[in-house]
């Protein structure tokens, strides 16, 4: 019996020694492996060659800068407009030293559509017909309706309200628009379509 216990104890000790050796070897191998550290998102230069510097027109807001060629304009205010389940935005800006207000409309219908507009306070006309001839161009009625708006930044309007609009379009793609805010007078503007790559957006933040 004594010899059996002695043999058993010796076997247990041998097994223990083997397990310790295996554990030490595993730890030594693990320490040789390279350590990977998550450094978070990789930094990049947004203006490096091959990068898209145009920006996302759907994310424009007051304080951003719009660059058209060599001209830069601050977005002073934005209107978020909704009619039923359809929404679009009007971003107001002015050139330095100019009293003429301009804006960029951004909408998805269903593709992204962009247009640059200019106020035309010199035009004393109202949307009373399906066709309007103006400065040698014939514009045809394309849509009209009533929507709600929400104002951000400097727009000259209330924080929220109602908007009536009547839009005309010419054969060359240019636009004639009438807008009436909160049952006021009709405001006339002329516009033209632009493509996303024709200007650059610099976030104000």
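-> sequence recovered:
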């Amino acid at each position: 019996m004594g010899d059996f216990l002695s043999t058993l104890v010796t076997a247990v000790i041998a097994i223990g020694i083997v397990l310790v050796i295996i554990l030490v070897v595993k730890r030594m191998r693990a320490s040789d492996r390279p350590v990977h550290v998550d450094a978070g998102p990789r930094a990049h230069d947004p203006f490096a060659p091959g990068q898209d510097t145009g920006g996302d027109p759907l994310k424009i807001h007051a304080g951003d800068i719009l660059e058209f060629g060599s001209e830069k304009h601050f977005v002073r205010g934005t209107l978020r407009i909704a009619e039923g389940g359809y929404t679009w935005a009007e971003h107001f800006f002015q050139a330095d030293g100019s009293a003429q207000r301009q804006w960029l409309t951004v909408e998805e219908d269903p593709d992204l559509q962009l247009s640059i507009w200019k106020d035309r306070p010199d035009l004393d006309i109202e949307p009373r017909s399906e066709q309007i001839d103006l400065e040698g161009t014939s514009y045809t009625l394309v849509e009209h309706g009533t929507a709600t708006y929400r104002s951000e930044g400097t727009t000259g309007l209330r924080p929220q309200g109602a908007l009536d609009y009547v839009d005309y379009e010419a054969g060359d793609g240019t636009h004639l628009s009438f807008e009436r805010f909160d049952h006021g007078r009709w405001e006339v503007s002329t516009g033209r379509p632009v493509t996303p790559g024709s200007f650059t957006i610099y976030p104000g933040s």
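Helices lie at 2-32.
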